[in-house]
Design brief:
alpha/beta, 6-stranded mixed beta sheet, 10 strands, about 45% helix, about 15% strand
Length: about 260
């Protein structure tokens, strides 16, 4: 049986690769379940500090598999949905970097945006697609898109369902970097390795929770919570190691989560 999500780890970076290249890695319940299982395993693995997610072949994820959509449309779908929501990656305490190598459409775009950082190939094709399939902005996309790129630009991408390039995704502010397809995985992995080598896992975990959680908070409540978290940070070994490594001019040796 083909492993629907390949995995490899090197120097603290776990690379997960959607592996249905003949279908542009179109999403199925089985692939999603395997992806989420591997994220959950990575959170518990002390060797994993950062996660990179990409796709095999020419696509990142071309959205929901059309066989699934067809079976939903004709009432024959019998799949068992995963109980974990599509926002599940945002709850993983370790940074997740999407390396969007090609087609990133519909549900595939949702899963790219549920990562913490996004690198894309310049020529990758992006689209929300939903309006052109008679659907709606799925799985929180109507919440996250305006916060990333603003109301008007989010309306454009959702209402038109037009296709746009990775280069335009960068211009819109949707992604962190747009690079050549040939250098994409190398650059995303190099960035991930720098996080794994020099950033405190505990600090990154708290910051990730702050970023995803504070969007619904006021400035005052966010500042108040940060003050409490700062006191907690002072008592962790990461703080002592961070100061010591700076003063001793050496690379830090932060403990795993």
């Amino acid at each position: 049986m083909v492993d629907l999500v390949l995995s490899s780890i090197e120097r603290g970076v776990l690379t997960l690769t959607f592996n249905r290249p003949d279908r542009l890695n179109a999403w199925t319940a089985e692939m999603g379940r395997r992806y989420f299982d591997q994220l959950a395993e990575a959170e518990l693995d002390p060797e994993v500090r950062v996660i990179v997610v990409t796709g095999a072949g020419k696509g990142f994820c071309a959205g929901a598999d059309f066989q699934t959509l067809s079976s939903i449309q004709d009432g024959s779908y019998r799949g068992e949905p995963d109980k974990r929501p599509n926002t599940f990656p945002t709850t993983i305490r370790k940074p997740i970097i999407a390396a969007v190598n090609g087609a990133c459409a519909g549900l595939g775009m949702v899963h790219a945006l549920m990562c913490d950082l996004i690198f894309t190939a310049d020529e990758a094709k992006w689209t929300t697609a939903f309006a052109r399939r008679g659907l709606i902005a799925e799985y929180g996309l109507s919440w996250i898109l305006p916060r990333l790129i603003g109301h008007a630009k989010a309306m454009d991408l959702l209402l038109s369902g037009r296709t746009f390039s990775g280069a335009e995704a960068y211009e819109l502010g949707l992604v962190n970097r747009s690079v050549s397809r040939e250098s994409l995985l190398e650059e995303a992995t190099a960035y991930a390795r720098e996080l794994a080598a020099f950033s405190s896992p505990a600090s990154m975990a708290v910051m990730k929770r702050q970023i995803w959680g504070d969007w619904s908070e006021t400035l005052e409540s966010s500042e108040s919570a940060a003050a409490r978290k700062m006191v907690e940070a002072f008592s962790r070994p990461d703080f002592a190691e961070g100061v010591a490594s700076f003063l001793e001019r050496r690379a830090p040796g932060f403990p795993p989560l």
